[in-house]
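re: that chain from earlier
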Amino acid sequence: MIKYSILILTFISVQFSFSQDESFRSLNALPILNNPAFTGTNANPRLNYGIAITNLGFTSNFVQNYVSYDQRIDVLHGGIGAEIMHSKVLLYQNYQTGFNLNYSFQQNISEKLCLSLGARIEFEHLELNVNDFFGVSNSVDSIHTTTQLNYTIGGLLYGEKFFMGAVYSPLIYQSFSGEVDRVTSFSGSVGYNLTPFKNKELSFTPVLRYAYQDGFQQLIFQASFNTKRVAFGGSYLPRSFATIFVGYQFDRFSIKAVTGINDSPLTTATQSSQEFILQYNFSNTKNSPERSFKINLF
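^ sequence. v structure.
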């Protein structure tokens, strides 16, 4: 019975994960996933792929796959992007599929600061087999599905070493019982790229992120040490989880790995997660932002 309770709680928490919270615990390693204002702020068009495998504490794993593409379009005075995601509990007939379209408007407000305002349209489909929870033998009547359309808006103010971002998501969804519910979430982040070393290719980047969702609050701390090719560090959400990560940058290609462990007092189950993220930067085009976002947030 305990494992079914964990599974139920997991699905409740991840039902809106792509819209409201870090489905991937590495903050902004997949930038447009957490804030649409990052769309098109990279110097080059970029393709991202991420996979996250979470050990739920019993015989099954929760697997999430994510692909995104974004680039700057000068005619639109900003960037466009698209995201596809799929998540599933292995060995169970439960999955979530999502597709997002992003746009950001970018404006230089001074010689050192740029403002980006982004919006995202989100389509999500969730299928749940209650047999997996209660052992019901009728497999036809036990399949429940929901489909929802929502939006997220975000803002980003950044310079060469500083950034500040905010995201707002007013979600309306239909539960499996047919009732319409509303969930409002807000998050904000701030960071600064410190270069106290003689070698200016070495930097230290602390990031602080606050999230609020219908009375629940989170405060996440993250820090990374960066060289020209290598980045490593960690993050911590008190009484929830901790992560460590490392990444390597090739000329146009980068690879990042994240491992996390549960630190919540709400369960004694051992839950851990592994994430692998790949990014490819295409050749520079004429559609390149005048002031691109260069801080390594991991």
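The chain has four helices and 14 strands.
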